[in-house]
From TrEMBL:
Protein name (database record): ANKY2 protein
InterPro entries in alphabetical order: Ankyrin-MYND_dom_contain_2, Ankyrin_rpt-contain_sf
Gene3D superfamilies xref list: Ankyrin repeat-containing domain
Chain segments annotated as transmembrane: none
Superkingdom assignment: Eukaryota
Annotated organism of origin: Neopipo cinnamomea
Annotated gene: Ankmy2
Amino acid sequence: IFPANSGNKEITWMMLEAGAETDVVNSVGRTAAQMAAFVGQHDCVTVINNFFPRERLDYYTKPQGLDKEPKLPVKLAGPLHKIITTTNMHPVKIVLLVKENPLLAEVEALQKCYRVLDLICEKCMKQKDMNEVLAMKMHYISCIFQKCITFLKEREDKLDGLIKSLLKGRDKDGFPVYQEKLIRESIRKFPYCEATLLQQLVRSIAPVEI
């Protein structure tokens, strides 16, 4: 808790990588993220909330149960983990991370990745210590991957076309309508309607017209 309270992002990240648990509470029943938020260290809160151990992803690189093949090829684990742990959730940033890695920027690779993200999302919602924030993040990235697949299959300009669509503003005020629609669509498709976070997002967005 002390590194998070002090605002030291680097040490907070190092402790997480060393195995520090994010859901352990102190004497007053607060986690490190909750205490950091209480004292205004929001950068550390972001680091904690976006941390996802590589071992949890590596689990999917090994065949499980009756599977003959792993759900995620080993070569995709590193690039996917980089995207999962990024704190910049702008859709253009995520598409750029896909585009810059030849291993990811293929239909088959993205299909495997988004299916794994959906499994992680499900696990986040069904585990004892439910993590709605991480579940929503996994679902959101999965939706962007699926949109990448559509452009790779149907458009000659491929991911460049998707980036242009996300950045293009409407004529009267420059507002990026396509980007807004993509984000709203990902929220609408979140499969766990009972999630508190989903209900909060819907209440915030529903009254606001594009």
